[in-house]
Amino acid sequence: RDPRDLTRCKAIEGHASLLFARRRDIRKISLDHHEMTTIVNETCSATALDFVFRTGMIFWSDVTDQKIYKAPIDEGSERSVVINNDITTTDGLAVDWIYNHIYWTDTGKNTIELANFEGQMRKVLIKDVLEEPRAIALNPIEGWMFWTDWGYDPKIERAGMDGSHRQTIVSYEVKWPNGLTLDLVKRRVYWVDAKLNTISSCDYDGRSRRVILFSPDTLRHPFSITTFEDWVYW
Question: pTM of the full predicted structure?
Fold first, then answer.
């Protein structure tokens, strides 16, 4: 807790950085002095990414290569392929840092799949009633996964990380739900809507919903979102 404001939490150690994909490369920007460095060079269409804090490994999808890669964050040139077959358009990717799995959405095949960090033990978890799955976020502590679907019937869903207990948590006043992230402390879901120009949040079950920001100027077509301490980034 922040000693000056007990309603806020602050990271005790380390220097916070934001990772983002720019199609042709993946970059890191420090949040305190805004210095930007390139982590991975010469990607074709780097799209979704996630990071394993414990090992310093970054995972990302490339929708042109139709592959999922990994690399150490400080040695981005040492990349290796994790998934390279039976994959089309991976717009969402998340790591389970407890059991060492990656989860991804495939909007070409309309599936949600998982594999271990080496690309083995692969399994399709969700394949029915998926139209345009995009973002995915995990809470491996409690065993939940959440994803967005911007198809004809747009919604946000959740299920157990084995695909069980599937339910829709957001189904109204949602059009193009793109990015999705979780606040594991407050147990809330945050998402951006590219059609409604909004950032919204709700509880894990869809209740206590609220709009955090509505702005056609600053939210022209938000694609992804993340949170750190008391801020959201998109």
Answer: 0.94
